[in-house]
Design a protein that fits this description.
Blueprint (H helix, E strand, L loop, with lengths): L7 H9 L32 H12 L4 H4 L25 H5 L2 H36 L3 H29 L7 H12 L3 H26 L3 H28 L5 H21 L13 H10 L1 H10 L3 H7 L5 H9 L11 H16 L2
Amino acid sequence: MLLTYNRDDASDRYATMELNYVLPIDQTGWAIDGKTNASFRWDYDKAGPALLNLYQKGKQQQWDAEQRIDWLQDLDPENPAMLVDETISIYGSEIWNRMNEAERANLRRHLQAWQISQFLHGEQGALICSAKLVQQAPAIDAKYFAATQVMDEARHVESYSRLLREKFELAYPITAPLKALLNDVVADSRWDMTYLGMQVLIEGLALAAFQLFRDQAKNPLVSAVNAYVMQDEARHVAFGQIVLRDYYPQLGDAERRVREEFVVESCYRLRDRLLSEELWENVGLPKAACLDFARQSATAKGFQLRLFSRIVPLIREIGLCGPTVRRAFAQMGMLSLVNVDLAPTLADDARVAARFDAAP
């Protein structure tokens, strides 16, 4: 929905609001001693059509979060995104069944704030990594596109930060598995590991999580923010896919094995990131029992399968789906996703965003 009304009042209100952090930010920040090599390229005529086309889309599809999103819409404090309760990992457990409606409403608000907080933190990681790719990329066309992604990621940080600050008034710190993965990606000096860690693994999982909010959230503001972010992220994932599927076949067995081991370790971390470990005690629930149910329930496993529905085909596409990776995917119950064709899904992300713009 493209907006034309004056939004000065909303902007002023946003600028003066304070966000309630579950933990003080001076206890949760960290710095990474990352070593990045800057690659200068003088072969300006060597840009290839695939990345140039993606770069053109990146230029044409820039948008302003202040103008494109209707920030005047309200959220229901008892279920801000208006998600069905079946999306909650402890739904159907004895713990859930004993909770009264006030406790469930509090859990909904905190869980959704936790989820969007992880989106926000991941987008800041992507902002840092995309700036790193401008330096690292070994080809000029990749530098062109990475520059558009820097602006995309800044806009995503702005959008999720505002959603939490103005509408949820609550934010959670970065979950430990995501923090560990970001630490490894940012600290690694190899350019392809930045692509692999961010463009494929973190962005791949994020796209599936964004899709859940886009398609299942009944609140139009939450749905729109995720739809517009996904329009950008589909390009970012395609960027990593185009570059790495050409590069990884050139590697020897030892180098490819290093990347596959990284994929396995990262996927376990991303799986653990879905457990919302920092949440349960904060809302007065028994952490160990909640985590145990979340690991075992059929609902939670189905949710996990959906969230890996983009990563697994991407790993196959870039040529890293060797025996070690396949064993890990089988152990996690995700091997059935290997042969999924991701192209129609990525193409649909842009079309869905356009439908939100056309909505009355």
